């Protein structure tokens, strides 16, 4: 296999960020099915054809560049958050393109490329790969709406002209997704490469405490059933109770709180808040759920609240394929001998869905300051190139 | 003085609720300067004229029915919350009308009536009486906007046709406001009359914790600067620290919380929340402020937050006039001998503003279930009539 070309790779990566350029730093505004997203996918399809790959686009708008016969699939997504960084998803797609190009020039091994659609969740979470993996029928997905009420069916009609048909997953021997870490671990330790061991599982649900809305001047403290106080008490008690169950990798978050009526002179009668927890161990997710529900019930009983739960989103942890992990680890030892580590992925990725179809693995490079989903997201170009070389070396060694 | 007529009083009270009737229970939708509010004020002016009072309307839309010469002023407000009850304000206005009517029929003492405008705060808090009391120049008030951006200047133009000019407060010897309690005290004890001792003072401000917005999957717990966690910690710590300073009548409330970006998968980077506290003792309000600021600073320091404060609204406690209070107490002993009490008002009222101009007092009747600012607000009609009789008796005794 001919070596990859870092300059060509970086040039392509910078060209991709011209589609939907935010004009703020290197940021992009390229949400799924937007004009900028579709233009980027057309450009990408051109690049795939130039590389000698056969372009196929499935009904969801996932863009594939296919090698002949059985091949290893590399890629990620090219849609962005409403205010996104230039590397989130784009890095994995362009690295895949460069490795496929180098591989074709060298006469093998066969490498195919994919850019999944709507990983960033305009219509859900990793919508394009969810449908491709068979978990969600496209007829059902079509009814999903974005936050202004546009259906996925209407949104994807905008790229109907590119669609060629279904793409058979049976032709791929495995999937490797390179991605920015989107967290602080590598940046904090000064390391360059993370070989992912697991993508953590997630549980996410809304919890509602319903107390009594009252006047904040005339209602004595001892007669209040204040829904915000219930959330605060739940939060404190939960932290105590989780302490003996969690590991340093476990995370839990109350990221959304909605009080009713949310006015400074009114004792809040209702609080709806999100409870999300993530861990690489499926059993621990279950133990945490029991503690969360018990704590909410205890607080509701103590404070005269009615308690209800929204539907629970549940995604099981996904273990990366051992053989693919080993290939990435060996390659990391070559190109980043003292500066790589094994680590879990705290973020969801398309690889979670693809794991239903084939062996998968993931490779991380650092995020400066650990930040992502913002125009400021960035990675040292030297680290991007090390990531590219590790990916190429792993692909070579698997041949 | 001829006795008041309970049936005529109740009939007027029910007729007033036909203006802006919500169609839900006895509720009304009659916010300041709305069509329903202006129609109600025109009806009220008619009723005042029928009673032999001279109607004057000041530029804010406060409607006065004036007796000749020096007189005692009775009244409250007839605007409502966006979803209001039939008695909040209306009770005090119609009771005043009935007492003035009975008093005129009896040849004295002279009683004037007022319905203040925008007590419910479409443009602030007790806006009409604030301007009348001289605290806020009308030119400044004119720039205030409601929550959809309409200015007070534009809103009050709708009732310009009713305006007669300024109304001189010098003609009034005192002000008595009858009102529903809007809290649970009388309803809980089964009492019928509350003679108000003080209107509590209020402090209200927004507090902002600014931490670091982060991905809820990739950011380890120990590296988070989670703004919601800061609010929760502040809330718990504040409760501990206030314990030795407050009385059973002191209240404090976090009624508004706004997280940014308020998404379940993102560690909140910013939290803006309201902190409001009320007490009848001005010194205690100051001591509480010191504790609140110290607690916020401690939490900010512990958790790596930037801390900032919005402007603080401050209203000092108002003591009711001893002479007027005594008259109400004596009258309560006549009409509710075992079922009255002295109590503070935890809610703000127009009387707070009027106290800048003359001696003031207030009289409460129970709120069923302690609820107000909702269509369900109500009071037993027998209690309304007892309140009316106490008011009339106090007025008679003051002559």
Automatic annotation (TrEMBL), chains A, B:
GO terms for molecular function: hydrolase activity, acting on carbon-nitrogen (but not peptide) bonds, in linear amidines; metal ion binding. It comes from the Bacteria. Binds 2 Zn(2+) ions per subunit. PANTHER family: ALLANTOATE DEIMINASE-RELATED. Residues 201-300 form the Peptidase M20 dimerisation domain. Zn(2+) 1 binds at residues 77, 88, 179. Its cofactor is Zn(2+); Mn(2+). Keywords: Hydrolase, Manganese, Metal-binding, Zinc. The keyword Manganese applies. Zn(2+) 2 binds at residues 88, 120, 373. Belongs to the peptidase M20 family. The keyword Hydrolase applies. This is Zn-dependent hydrolase. CDD domains: M20_bAS (cd03884). It holds the Pfam family M20_dimer. Coiled coil: none annotated.
